[in-house]
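Service request form, structural biology core

Requester: graduate student, group of Dr. S.
Request type: structure prediction, single chain
Budget code: on file
Notes: please return the result as structure tokens.

Sequence provided:
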Amino acid sequence: MADDACGICGVAAEPVLLQMCFRCDTLYHLNPYSNVEGIDCGDAVIGAELGLYYYCSPCIVAINEEINELVMQESQQREAQRQPGWRAPGTVSEAPAEPSAPPPSSTPPAAPRATAAPPRRRFRRIDQ
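Core staff response, request fulfilled:
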């Protein structure tokens, strides 16, 4: 069998010890044995659809950075919703709007109603 080289470290290996990354299609070292010493230039992750996903080390770092960025954006959005005046560091804020006066009313306010005692209900006892 022909030996292929790892795209991450450049060391040649048998094809059984190389795996192709799902994200960038680079061959990398992945030792499938737990009882034999070997080089690992990536990892296998259990996924929901295909079973195992294979990623090289640079792609794992990139995926983690993307996830961290998404989590940070979501947390900033939640914080902005909780505190209307809050803004994320480094963002440009709009000038605060000055409060406006209430619109003038053309009709005078109505006088309060006289509060009379509510009518009493008559109850009957029904005997059988």
